[in-house]
């Protein structure tokens, strides 16, 4: 059988796939050249297989466009959201969310996460984290049905929805706990990480587990009876044990109140204001830059006087957008960093002394 969903989508859970399918149809009340339908053609290109075999060659139901045209179509759709039924907007918002968290290509994920957060801001709701999305859609049927009954506006409220802030803090607490130091296979002390490059079905994956160096073939037989013969470099690779995650920002730690980076102007002065440094190795940085570019574009379109006061121009907006795309390209070519890792470099006292002149970064 040849499913119409792309391979990355077919690897998701059935509820995730079901969500993706709800956005395939355009808004019934909108004309053919409506902004929503132009954007949905782009959405189909990242979710569906084209009948002609190549989404870039499709010209009707599916349209694969470059990142800037895609962003332009999204912005046009967002500005028109008041014209569409709320039910339709929410379906498409959830579809955008799944693409933003689950698409296999980092550049696509970054852009669509930005679209998702922009829609949430327009709807005056807090965005779900990926963990919250998975917890909701992967819940057992009885739990899923009970939530649906309890949280719908036409039902009795049987369970209070958790505060988004509380949920975010709980998720952060889970991330901030120290990583496991026991071998995943034999529970001896782990001193390295085995990175599986394939899952049980042989599909490409990147699964990191703590490992002590025990025989992996013997260990794998604990999980399924007849594992295929594995080969280092093809099925797995070995890396040092993962770094511990931060429990907050560097500037939140009493031992490093000056922060993580020294920010200097071209005249060799340290800015007095707090700052936040973004680098291309951080997979979240491009999302932030795309959102920045989108907000500049909104100001230019909807609040031209404020844009003029801030000295914002269309050329500046395009430059920020290109910078975000350069971040994505760099990370694709060089790999992803670990922005949440705890301190692991040795301080230079002279640099730290200059950092104390500012308000931390």
Tell me, what's the shape?
Answer: globular
Number of strands: 3
Helix content estimate: 40-55%
Biggest beta sheet attributes: 3 strands, antiparallel
Order of the strands making up the biggest sheet: 2-1-3
Q: SSE string, helix = H, strand = E?
A: HHHHHHHHHEEHEHHHH
| Percentage of residues in DSSP E strands | 5-15%
Cα-atom radius of gyration: 23 Å
Structural class: mainly alpha
Distance between the termini: 53 Å
What is the residue-mean pLDDT, rounded to a whole number? 81
What count of structural domains? Answer: 3
Distinct helical segment count:
14
> Ranges with pLDDT <50 over ≥5 residues?
150-180
Explain this structure to me?
The chain is mostly helical and 361 residues long. The chain folds into three domains: 7-152 and 162-173, no CATH class; 192-240, no CATH class; 250-355, no CATH class. 45% of the residues lie in helices and 6% in strands. The protein has 14 helices and three strands. The chain has helices at residues 7-10, 14-22, 35-47, 67-79, 86-102, 106-123, 130-137, 141-151, 164-176, 216-220, 285-302, 304-309, 314-334, 349-355, and strands spanning 192-198, 204-211, 236-240. It has a three-stranded antiparallel sheet with strand order 2-1-3, with no helix packed on it. A hairpin with a 5-residue loop joins strand 1 (192-198) and strand 2. Helix 2 packs across helix 5 (86-102) and helix 4 (67-79) packs parallel to helix 6. The longest helix has 21 residues, at 314-334. It starts with 6 loop residues before the first helix and ends in a 6-residue tail after the last helix. Residues 150-180 have low confidence and may be disordered.
